[in-house]
Amino acid sequence: MENLVTATAVPPQLPLDYTAEVAERTAPVYRRLKSVIPEIEWPIHAPYIAEIQRMKEERGAIVLAHNYQTPEIFHGVADLTGDSLALARQAMETDADVIVLCGVHFMAETAKILNPEKTVLIPDPKAGCSLASSITAADVRLLRERYPGVPVVTYVNTSAEVKAETDVCCTSANAVEVVESLGAERVIFLPDEYLGHHVASRTDVELILWQGHCEVHERFSGSEIRSYREGHPGVVVLAHPECPQDVLAEADYVGSTSGMIGYVGERKPARVVMITECSMSDNVAVEHPDVEFVRPCSLCPHMKRITLPKILKSLQTLEHAVEVSPAVATRARRAVERMLEIGRGTGG
Ligand code: SF4
Question: Ligand 1, atom 8: nearest CA belongs to which residue?
Answer without folding.
Answer: 129
